[in-house]
Amino acid sequence: MLKTILLAAALLSACGNAAKGTDFAQNFVGTWNGTTTLNVNGQSQPGGSILIAISETGTNGLTIGAICPDLLHSVGPHGTADTATAFTIEPYDCPVTGGGACSSIVENLTGGSGNLAGATLVGAYSGAQICDSNPRVTATVNFTVTRVVP
Q: Are 137 and 40 spatial neighbours (Cβ–Cβ below 8 Å)?
């Protein structure tokens, strides 16, 4: 009887540990298209359209591409698929660009997150824009996107 109870306990324990190795990254991989709203220096304003490319880098590992200012840069911040419906975005320094009154513009992303609800991915990421070594704006980009390419 004791052997049966110990065997049952061992089997239940093994089943519980299997979920920890589950790879959720594929739930988020693909090209996502949608819209944004912005909160810049504490003020809400309309955003525009956004295209986010998410690729897998390993078990629950993600790369979030096309969110830096050059928009075509395929490499972006890394992220983690935390559950089947949620991921986090790690801090990241976008490649230096230039334009307007700034000879160099650096976007420092401080992180973010996303949640999958059916076919829609809703999330946000925050950061600061630095113009020639001087902080210029802080912003949060809120996005609502749907997958267009798996």
A: yes
DSSP result, 53-65: EEEEEETTEEEEE
With 80 as the cut, is the pLDDT of residue 136 above it? Answer: no
Q: Which residue has the tokens 């935390």?
A: 82
Mean pLDDT calculated for residue range 4-20: 34
By CB atoms closer than 10 A (0-12, 13-18, 19+), residue 144 is middle
Q: What is the mean pLDDT of residues 31-35?
A: 95
All structural domains of the chain: 23-149 (2.40.128)
Mean pLDDT, the chain, integer: 81
Instruction: Return the structure tokens found at 101.
Output: 């009154």
Distances (CA, A) of 116 to 6, 17, 84, 98, 148: 39, 24, 8, 34, 14
